[in-house]
Structures are given as C-alpha cells and as structure tokens.
Specification:
Layout (H helix, E strand, L loop, with lengths): L11 E4 L5 H12 L3 E6 L6 H8 L4 E5 L5 H15 L4 E4 L14 H29 L3 E6 L12 H21 L4 E8 L8 H4 L2 H10 L12 H8 L10 E4 L7
Parallel strand pairs: 1-2, 1-4, 2-3, 4-5, 5-6, 6-7
Helix pairs in contact: 1-2, 1-8, 3-4, 4-5
C-alpha cells in the first residue's frame, strides 16, 4: 500500500469544535495531510488552528456558532460549501460536559448536552451526507465519541448518554450510507489533557486513580488523536464502516 492513501489533497473538510483542544489538533493534522479545513467554535474569536491551517498552505475559515441551535448546523454546512465548493470530510468534534450528581442534575444541563453532543451530530451528518449523496463522490464522516460511549462515568449522566448515542448513531448512519461511498466512523478518546478534564486533573485523588489505570501511564495529548483522524478521513479507511476506534492509552484493555 502506498502512503498516498493517507493524503487528503483536494479534499474539503469541516471540523467542529476546532477552536482549541482535540478539534484544533485534528484540523491542523488534516491540513498538513493536504485538506482545506473550515474551523468552528463558540468563541467569537478564531483560535490558533486557522492560522496553522493557513501556514500549511490550505484554505480555511472560522465560523462562530452555538450548535445547540439547529439553525447553526445548516449555516455551518452552507458556509463550508460556499467557501470550498464542497464538503468531503466532516468531523463532529464539538462537545461539552457538565458535572453534577444525577439526583440533582439540572434539566438545563441535560437539554444543552444532548443538543450539542448528540442532536447536532445527527443534523450536521445528515446535511453533509445529503450533499455527498447528491455529488455521488462519497465522503468521510468522523464522530468523536468517548470512553463513556462504553462506560457510565460518574457525575456525568447527560454526557454519558450523549456519547453512548454518538457510538450508536455512528453505526446506524454507516449502515445506511456505506453503499453510497460514505464512511461513518468514530474515535473514542481516552483521558485527554483538555478543558473537559480540568476538574479531574486538578483533583489529586481522582487524577491518580485515572493514571494508575492507564497502561500508557500518562494523560493523552490532543496530538495523540491526529493519526487516527487522518486514517479515518482518508482513502486508507475506505473499507472501514461503523467502527468506534478507542485511542485511550490502553484504558479499555485494562
């Protein structure tokens, strides 16, 4: 197999939640592999990812939107197609987490997390797939799941429910769209050093418990996701459909 199958030259990508963290690392990795990459975040100011995409010689833009609003999903897909002419790769990375005991978990936390972490993933995937099907040139949809797609977690009922849903949605969409040349897969990151895990890393007891269980003996870094993302967004994964790939330092093997 030639390494050219990992190249993304001529492809147009959108990475949600790419203002920083895992999304930014994925956006930059796709650009370095050859893709034009649109970036998104809730912050009105672009993060560093757009600059790094440009530095790689690729086209980019930044779109600020709250994906809890379904209108933002259509606006984001339309912006990508308008800027680049098509969308060949969609990475559904945007997500959030809110912690509270299940017995006291606020309804507004639940509603917001399900909207952003699950419903928006469906809407964006649906809109992108419609475009891909009309063009009849296939495409790649990559969802960012979680270890909590497999496990229940503590103090995060909405996050666990949403990420479990992302894993199942990945399989459901793959079943319908694989024959149309659209690969739908997911990455389940392990415990990563990002904004979502600040509370855990700042808790010396919980942090030690987590580290003691990770065979790799360290927290993951955003860059640890890059290789898996390139694989699942490139033609190297053309016969991979409906798979949830854990990138977790060995956590699930423990």
């Amino acid at each position: 197999m030639s390494l050219e199958v990992f190249q993304l030259n001529g492809k147009n990508a959108l990475v949600t939640g790419s203002h920083r963290g895992l999304g930014a690392a994925i956006a930059v990795a796709l650009a370095k592999a050859g893709a034009n990459v649109g970036c998104h975040g809730r912050d009105p100011n672009p993060g560093a990812a757009c600059g790094e995409v440009s530095a790689a010689g690729r086209k980019t833009f930044y779109f600020s939107a709250d994906l809890a609003d379904s209108n933002s999903c259509s606006g984001l897909i339309e912006k990508t197609i308008s800027e680049f002419g098509s969308i060949d790769i969609l990475v559904n990375n945007a997500g959030m987490i809110r912690r509270a005991p299940a017995a006291e978990y606020p309804a507004e936390f639940w509603n917001e997390l399900i909207a952003v972490n699950l419903t928006a993933v469906f809407h964006l995937s649906q809109l992108a797939a419609r475009h891909m099907i009309e063009r009849d040139r296939g495409g790649k949809i990559l969802n960012i799941a979680s270890l909590l797609s497999f496990q229940g977690g503590i103090l995060v009922p909405a996050y666990a429910a949403a990420k479990g849903g992302v894993a199942q949605l990945t399989k459901a969409l793959a079943n319908e769209w694989a024959a149309k040349g659209i690969n739908v897969n997911a990455i389940a990151p392990g415990y990563m050093a990002t904004d979502n895990t600040v509370a855990l890393r700042n808790d010396p007891v919980r942090s030690r418990q987590i580290l003691d269980r990770i065979p790799a003996a360290r927290w993951g870094e955003p860059g640890d996701i890059a290789g898996a993302a390139i694989f699942l967004c490139s033609s190297a994964s053309d016969y991979v459909h409906g798979h949830v790939l854990a990138v977790d330092g060995g956590w699930l093997a423990r």
